[in-house]
Amino acid sequence: PAVAAAMRIGAVLSALQPALPLLLGLSLGCSLSLLRASWSHSAAEERCLAPGRPAPPARGTPPEAAEGRPGPGHEDFRPRIVPYYRDPNKPYKKVLRTRYIQTELGFHERLFVAVLTSKATLNTLAVAVNKTVAHHFPRLLYFTGLRSAKVPHGMVLVAHGDERPIWLMYETMNYIHEHFGSDYDWFYIMQDDTYAQAEQVKALVTHLSINQDVYLGRAEEFIGGDEQARYCHGGFGYLLSRSLLLKLHPHLDSCRNEILSVRPDEWLGRCIIDFLGITCVSQLQGQHYHTYELAKNTEPEKEEEEEFQAALAVHPVSDMTLMYRLHKQFSRIQLDRVYQEIQDLQMQIRNLTALTPAGEAGVTWPVGINAPFLPKSRFEVISWDYFTEQHLFSCPDGSPKCELSGASKADVSEIIESAVEQLNRRYQPLLRFSKQQLLNGYRRFDPTRGMEYTLDLLLEAATQKGHSHVLAKRVSLVRPLSKVEIIPMPYVTEATRVQLVLPLTVQDLDFVANFLDMFAMNTLDTHDNALLTLLFIYHPYDAQRVGQVDVFAGVKAMLGELEKRYAEVKIPWISVKTEVPSQVKLMDIVSKKHPVDTLFFLASVWTEINMEFLNRCRMNTISNWQVFFPVHFQEFNPTLVYRGEQTASSNTDFLRDGHFDRHSFAEACFYNSDYMAARTKLAADILDRDEVLESMEVFDVFLHYSGLHLFRAVEPGLVQKYTLRSCNPRLSEELYHRCVLSNLEGLASRSHLAMALFEQEQANST
């Protein structure tokens, strides 16, 4: 019996052995939880007191915490849910959200710059400031008393109507507070005879706290005034915080009436000291405001003092030429600093990489630049483009060879020059290279690092003794991606109404029912803000017989059924008689019947409308800025792709058996005002030659006769079923050729076509 019991216990233990870690973990967890709960209970135990008497606070606990309120430094930041309640007796008011999230969160722009100028120096020193540093500041305005008859191009000027210096300063401070006081954190005031290092000023404000009243600049003593009080010298610029400006504004009128001064910077400094008690400082929060005073006949190129190189502002600048020379010198100093920082970082990367498992083999070239993209399949391989000094062998239009010109030619010339310069820098003074010929050139764009080049150069190498030799050398270069910038775009909204325009011919009748069903399901049922207008394009022969037989009678009946089903919807249609359905002529008719602010979506009968694409149409189309020409996804011929097999219909096969049809420009999103402006320029160019319109599409009108951005991108939301489109031979040769290419490339992929030919050859051989 003992042996049997032991065997049973052993069997039970062997069965429970896999679960032993789980049981031990649960036991340990429960024990620790009970132990922690007992500690918490003992710590929170209250003392027994008489009824009605509050418990005394624990030692070290502030009275506020004892009463249930958080004490100083012990704020309770735990969130709490506030239940929504709306009084049924009060009318409902729609909550209006702000246009930008930064407005709702109370964010401000960083820096605003004001330049004080005059009528005499507006076209000289002010222009020099605008050409050197203005584009480095996010917002810069020029303030003057009287303006000249012609304002220089690219400058935003504010004229106050009085050249008195104190009045100019008073009006400028009022203007800044009124128009920009709630939008910016820092305000930098400078004169037009001041050269300021814009990048250094921007770096300065990023290291200062916006919660303090800041009056920062070159501190100067008042003449005959208090030794402790200082004002900021206006010639070297000064920085004001937003909080100081808000506090100063109510006292500006009193300062204008009570403070007498000749210099505007002294007047402003006295105003700040008298009413706010804040004096100018040259150092704050560990940041120094370095300045440099130029002597007469100074040569900026020869200034090597550390004080000059560290200066944020230089004064006085007597003429435009000196301003440009200063800008050149400081740019060179900044560039040398950047190159030195790059070398230091590269050295650190080499030292650290040697300690990694990969060792020195893990160092990429160039050091600090991302490694080249490694494709995971043959479909991800980035191809190289071959070029010479005269020709490019990978052309945008698909031709095998084209002349190298424009930006591409400048790019090739610059990269060859840079290659020879780098070789000379490496081998001088032993060898001196000069280019004779570019034998071969290759380039490709790697999105992870930039443009890569491989050059085979025929070079002449000359030694110090005068001997020369011709040799071929291969060099590799990289033009890395620089700092990514966000391009400012005008504000757009998804609430804009979209007006769909659908041209229909007799050949399109078989596809109208599916288009209307998709339109009703995705826009009318969802109450999307979209309308539809149909264009019935009659052939002259059909137009004569419309009284007896209307070829579009079935479509008109479908529209009537839709209007009955959706009582609030009206679908207008327009009849057009023409042999050549020119896209431009059709849009001319539609454009005249709609307001100028209408957002058009020019659709085709094979388009399946959905809300996702309509929102992208709204967001990608910007009035007086950008038009949108989506590239739809065209499915292949299922007969060739599946060859009798079942068609894939799962979501995982979305956008698989097809291609983006880059030859089609049938779909377009644009505003009526933009189309009318471009159409007016086109009419002035062609005069009365209306036959030219037959060779153009709406895309050509915007491309050649508008200054708008043409946004052409693939659109996965526009999926079209396969159909063999009829190409009108009466259209221009280019449009007809596009239509034929679209049909041919839409048959199937090359692998599918090859398989179909292979099966056909096998069938013929048997």
TrEMBL record:
It is found in: Golgi apparatus, Golgi stack membrane. Keywords: Glycoprotein, Golgi apparatus, Membrane, Signal-anchor, Transferase, Transmembrane, Transmembrane helix. The keyword Transferase applies. InterPro entries: Chond_GalNAc, CS_glycosyltransferase. One of its GO terms (cellular component) is Golgi cisterna membrane. Gene3D superfamilies: 3.90.550.50. It is a single-pass type II membrane protein. Pfam families: CHGN (PF05679). Residues 49-80 are annotated as: Disordered. Belongs to the chondroitin N-acetylgalactosaminyltransferase family. This is Hexosyltransferase. The lineage of its organism: Eukaryota, Metazoa, Chordata, Craniata, Vertebrata.
